[in-house]
Specification:
about 250 residues, alpha/beta, 2 domains, 10 helices, 4 strands, globular
């Protein structure tokens, strides 16, 4: 991945700039600021304590991210009060990741947990399968059909359409967790910091129930239930520990 970091002053990973072909028309500072404002719903932050924390996380991930030569991603810290982060794929190659400053505050001094949140969003930008409708349908598999039936029963035609899309997006979220976890651990972060990020979010959102009503309420959600994501993360942690024990 080429981390397209072109603001003034150059930030995050100056070496990444040299990876952009010389003939490429680079955006101006004003153009970048305009896109960040629109996509991230807030102006970009390029200095200060929060920026330093954000920059350390991205710099630690950079050696692994830069091994991918096919994708160009701009990672921005935004003046936004949402406790969230998101990625927008402009096309199959170019993407932007938005990290609101509120998320940096929320993670406090847990750089590893912030690093996993960023790595998860990177997972979305490099997962080409989930960038196409056909790929998302393949990722969602048979669960989309059952969700559509239940969604139709609860919300009619619109409910069925929304419910049929939700499993596809949830599957892509799980894929981003897995891709991000691999990059995250290869960068040298503790695997358990990823679990810590989910635990922190679970406490904040109160998304702890796993019963029938909780699952019915989650039918239209485009993210897996947090307990399900934690269960998936535990399997990733177990596999990671087993693989490490074999290489030691």
């Amino acid at each position: 991945m080429k981390l397209l970091v072109l603001l003034f002053p150059l930030l995050l990973i100056p070496a990444a700039v040299s990876q952009v072909p010389a003939q490429q028309n680079l955006p101006t500072r004003a153009q970048v600021a305009q896109v960040v404002q629109k996509v991230c719903r807030g102006s970009e932050i390029t200095s200060g304590e929060e920026f330093d924390t954000f920059r350390r996380a991205v710099q630690k991930l950079a050696p692994v991210l830069n091994q991918d030569r096919q994708h160009v991603t701009y990672i921005a810290l935004a003046d936004n009060n949402e406790i969230n982060a998101w990625a927008l794929n402009f096309d199959m190659t170019n993407s932007m990741i938005c990290v609101p400053v509120a998320m940096v505050h929320f993670m406090g001094d847990a750089e590893g947990e912030l690093g996993f949140i960023i790595a998860h969003e990177v997972g979305h930008t490099v997962d080409d399968q989930c960038k196409t409708q056909q790929g998302r349908m393949q990722a969602g598999g048979s669960s989309a059909g059952l969700s559509a039936i239940l969604g139709g029963a609860l919300g009619g035609g619109q409910g069925a359409a929304a419910a049929s899309r939700a499993p596809q997006q949830r599957a892509c979220e799980a894929r981003a967790d897995e891709i991000g976890f691999k990059m995250f651990t290869e960068a040298g972060y503790s695997a358990y910091a990823a679990a810590g990020a989910f635990g922190r979010l679970e406490m904040y959102m109160g998304d702890t129930s796993t019963g029938l009503f909780a699952r019915l309420n989650a039918l239209g959600s485009d993210h897996p239930m947090t307990p399900d994501r934690i269960k998936h993360m535990r399997s990733l942690l177990i596999n990671y520990a087993q693989q490490n024990s074999l290489t030691q």
